[in-house]
Amino acid sequence: MRCADGEPIALMDNLLPTAIAPAHEELEHEGLYNLLRTQGVVLTTATQAIGARNATTDEAKALDEKRRAALLTVTRTAYDSSGAVIEYGTHVYRASRYSLRDDASTPSPQHAGGAACGAAQPRGRNGASRPRRRPTEGIHSPLERIIPRRGDGRHYRS
Questions:
Q1: What is 34-48 written as a DSSP string?
Q2: Which of 27, 52, 61, 87 is the most buried (most CB within 10 A)?
Q3: Angle CA(1)–CA(157)–CA(55) in degrees, nearest 5?
Q4: Collapsing DSSP states into helix, strand and coil, what is residue 74?
Q5: How far apart are CA 68 and CA 108, in angstroms?
Q6: pLDDT of residue 27
Q7: How far apart are alpha carbons 92 and 143 in whole angstroms?
Q8: Which residue from 87, 95, 102 is spatially nearest to 9, judged by alpha carbons?
Q9: Phi and psi dihedrals of 16, rounded to 5?
């Protein structure tokens, strides 16, 4: 569970290789990606799906929300520079306390045409389609794009 100012704001489940997984106690004081960086682990790409759904009874209770309250969902797989999976995470955020921000940029010349319907997708060794991985922008976590806010619309202190 992630809290801000003593208030529950997210439920997060992350799977990591045992060799690099920080202790629960460490995560109470420092963010996951900062702890990974201190071990020399650098995430270079990630795929994530962002969605919305209603809270289950257990989630609503844990997050101090009403049953069936709106939740933002994020499922992410993060990779290092060798392509090894470093993190698989499933997260739910209180929609009443979070907003999403996505910074878009002009596509590079090789992708100037954009992704048209039916455009070629990257293929794996067996010819099966595989999802494109998006850069995590090196230093910043994709999670930093999810901005916690208070009930009055102001952002929490960092």
A1: HHHHHTT--EEEEEE
A2: 87
A3: 35
A4: strand
A5: 42
A6: 87
A7: 12
A8: 95
A9: -135, 160
